[in-house]
Each structure stands twice: as structure tokens, then as C-alpha cells.
Specification:
With 357 residues, this protein is an alpha/beta fold. Helix content is 38%, strand content 19%. It has 15 helices and ten strands. Helix 3 packs parallel to helix 15 (340-356), helix 4 (109-121) crosses helix 6 and helix 8 (197-208) crosses helix 9 (212-219). The chain is globular and about 60 Å long. The protein binds 2-acetamido-2-deoxy-beta-D-glucopyranose (2 copies). The site of one 2-acetamido-2-deoxy-beta-D-glucopyranose has 4 residues, from loops.
Length: 357
């Protein structure tokens, strides 16, 4: 991808998107689940409806795939499996959302697509059409999808038009902030093969713009203007990480950058893009939360800090920290790239939903 881009042939993300295309599988129903590609609120979705006739109402899951807001598809083999198994094992209607992607679309489009699908599904008449219990609906997602799930859950609390409350949110190695991309987890996993720091910084900056000056400023952690210094308390790993996760890192105060970037691209300071930046008062009424973090992941500390902030705000949280796992492990649940760790993380997440949704 880097070579094609250097030669001026294709944008990096367009080359990467070929992987998504190769992994694509058509919607196919099986003995347990009816699978269709359709739309909710003009946003494409892949819908999984259990076949088994059930006496009572079913559960509902709105799922957002990962891929740095630029890649991925609900129809990728691994996402199709993940959501299909969720549907069949939980007897749940699963709505897997194909929100629009960068580099063609930028924030807030991804968020708005995610939000409008969730809001559409949460309408009483829609839930009842799919025989879903309004008391048993959650949002979930991995990586950039975990970011969208967290942002959607926050925004729903402030929307007086939504009458159904979420029962839970499940955030699987989510990306939650752009303020500090030099956290201990970024330092330790800078050269992680699946998600190196440089790629994460690129995903973040291209969520907002293709202007490389934002990417360069982020890469050197000099993109936050001093006027926004009050936000650093929300990503202060020195106070928010548990002792054992600080290891032997030394906290240094933030360095500030030029104010024009934040004026031009205010998205990176917006809690709808960076849910960790929400004030405590906005976290109070969030639903029961499941957070998966992986040891070998630049995003590890994002998830761990959100756990700390949610707990301090009185939100019940289950934190599964997988010491032997890496970012993206949930993608490795189908051949030819099938790993035990992927199945283990997936089973644990589905079991938690089964017991809590
Ligand atoms: C359907 O569900 C049964 C029971 O849970 C399971 O054993 C079987 O593998 C499922 N079929 C598919 C195609 O996933
Ligand atoms: C971060 O937390 C540490 C100690 O917990 C504190 O000394 C420091 O001032 C904080 N920095 C910011 C920018 O909030």
C-alpha cells in the first residue's frame, strides 16, 4: 500500500481496502440465522435474524466493525462470522452497520451513520417488528467500531427523542482518544505488525482530514492547543491507569501545538470522536459496560483509562484484559488465518453478553 501510494497510483487506504474486498462474503442464511443485506435509515446494514421460533422476545445487538474508520465491511468473512454466531448463540437480532468510510468521508459521517441506524432500530415499532425486547438491546464494536459504540451510547443519553435505553455496551479494544498518542501502550507497541503507531495515527488523522499536517502533528504528539489543556485530565494515564499497567513509564506533561489545527479540524477534540473526552457528568448514566483490552495493542491504555473513568462515575464495568492477546485478534476466527486466541476472546465476549444482555 505504501509503495502504490508513493508511486502515485492509489491512496494507501484504497489499496488496504482490497483486503476487505478479498474477504467479502455474500449474505447467506444458514440453518440458524436468516441473513440479508438491507438498509436502516438509508444506511446499509447486514441483518441477522434467528430462525428458531422463540416464545418470548429476543435480544438485540447493534454491531460496528473495525478498520480505522476507513476499512472493513460487515460482509468481511470474519465479521460475518462474529455477528452470525452472536445472533445464533444469543438468539439475538444483530444489526451490523456499514457506515460510510474515509478517505471519502470524514467525521462526523461515520458517527452519524452509526447513530442513525441505532436510533432507527431503537424505535418501539421497529423493535416490535423484529420481536426484540426493548429492555435487552446493546451496542458493540471492535477497534474503530468500539469507538463508534462508545460515542453512540453517550449521545443516546442526551437525545430526548429516544425512548429505549440501552441495556449494555461492549467495547472490544476500542480507540477512545487522540489527545495523547504517546501513552505507555503506544510506546510499547509502536511497531506492532497489525497496528503500528504510525498506522493508528494515520487512521485517526484521516478520520478528520487528508491534510498531512494533522498527521505529522499527531505523530509528534503536538496537535493539541494550550487552550484545550483542561482536556488532558481525561487522558492522564498517570492518574487513570491502574499501577500495574503503568509499569516503569514516567509521566511527562503534555506538549502543545499550533491552534490552527484544532480550529480547522475541531473533530479531534469532540467526544463523539473521542469518547474519553466526555465530562464525568456525561458518563454517569451509561449502561453496563464490557471492555476488552489486549496487552499487545497501542489502544490498550485507551480502554483501560475508560474503565477507570466509568467506574469512578459509578458505571458497572467488566474489564477483560487479555495478557496474551494483540490488537485485531478477533479477526482470526476463520481459515486460513484462524487462531485459538481469536476464538477464546470471541467466546468470552459472547458469554458475557449471554449472561448480561
Ligand atoms: C446452528 O446451531 C447449532 C446449535 O447451536 C450449532 O451446533 C450449529 O453449528 C449451527 N450452525 C451453523 C451453520 O452455524
Ligand atoms: C496528571 O496526573 C498527575 C498525577 O496523578 C499530576 O501530577 C499531573 O499534574 C496531571 N497532569 C495533567 C495535565 O492533568
Amino acid at each position: 500500500a505504501a509503495l502504490a501510494e508513493q508511486l502515485g497510483l492509489m491512496h494507501y487506504m484504497d489499496v488496504m481496502m482490497l483486503i476487505t474486498a478479498v474477504e467479502y462474503v455474500a449474505p447467506m442464511s444458514d440453518e440458524n440465522v436468516t441473513v440479508t443485506d438491507t438498509e436502516f435509515s438509508n444506511v446499509p446494514i447486514r441483518l441477522f435474524v434467528p430462525r428458531k421460533p422463540s416464545d418470548g422476545l429476543r435480544r438485540g445487538v447493534v454491531y460496528f466493525h473495525g478498520g480505522g474508520w476507513s476499512l472493513g465491511d460487515a460482509g468481511m468473512k470474519s465479521y460475518d462470522r462474529l455477528t452470525r454466531w452472536t445472533s445464533s448463540r444469543l438468539n439475538a437480532v444483530v444489526v451490523s452497520v456499514n457506515y460510510r468510510l474515509a478517505p471519502k468521508h470524514h467525521f462526523p459521517t461515520q458517527f452519524e451513520d452509526a447513530y442513525s441506524v441505532t436510533k432507527f432500530f431503537l424505535q418501539r415499532n421497529v423493535l416490535s417488528q423484529y420481536r426484540v425486547d426493548p429492555g435487552r438491546v446493546c451496542v458493540a464494536g471492535d477497534s474503530a467500531g468500539g469507538n463508534l459504540a462508545a460515542a453512540v451510547a453517550q449521545q443516546l443519553l442526551e437525545d430526548s427523542e429516544v425512548e429505549t435505553e440501552l441495556k449494555a455496551q461492549a467495547l472490544l479494544y476500542p480507540a477512545l482518544q487522540t489527545l495523547d498518542v504517546n501513552l505507555p501502550s503506544y510506546q510499547e507497541n509502536e511497531n506492532d505488525p497489525l497496528l503500528p503507531k504510525a498506522l493508528m495515527v494515520r487512521f485517526w488523522s484521516e478520520y478528520f482530514t487528508l491534510d498531512v499536517s494533522l498527521r505529522e502533528a499527531m505523530a509528534s504528539n503536538r496537535h493539541i492547543p494550550s487552550e484545550s489543556s483542561h482536556l488532558f485530565q481525561f487522558v492522564n494515564w498517570s492518574s487513570l491507569l491502574p499501577e500495574e499497567m503503568k509499569k516503569d513509564h514516567t509521566y511527562t506533561s503534555p506538549t502543545y501545538g499550533r491552534p490552527e489545527l484544532a480550529q480547522r479540524y475541531p473533530g479531534f477534540l469532540d467526544p463523539r470522536a473521542a469518547p474519553l473526552l466526555a465530562s464525568d457528568a456525561r458518563l454517569w448514566h451509561l449502561p453496563l459496560t464490557y471492555v476488552l483490552t489486549c496487552e499487545h495493542d497501542v489502544l490498550r491504555d485507551d480502554g483501560a483509562m475508560y474503565v477507570g473513568r466509568l467506574r469512578a462515575a459509578g458505571v458497572p464495568v467488566v474489564h477483560h484484559h487479555a495478557r496474551d492477546a494483540f490488537h485485531g485478534a478477533l479477526m482470526f476466527i476463520s481459515s486460513p488465518a484462524e487462531l485459538a486466541v481469536g476464538h477464546r476472546l470471541l467466546n468470552r465476549y459472547i458469554k458475557w453478553l449471554d449472561e448480561n444482555l
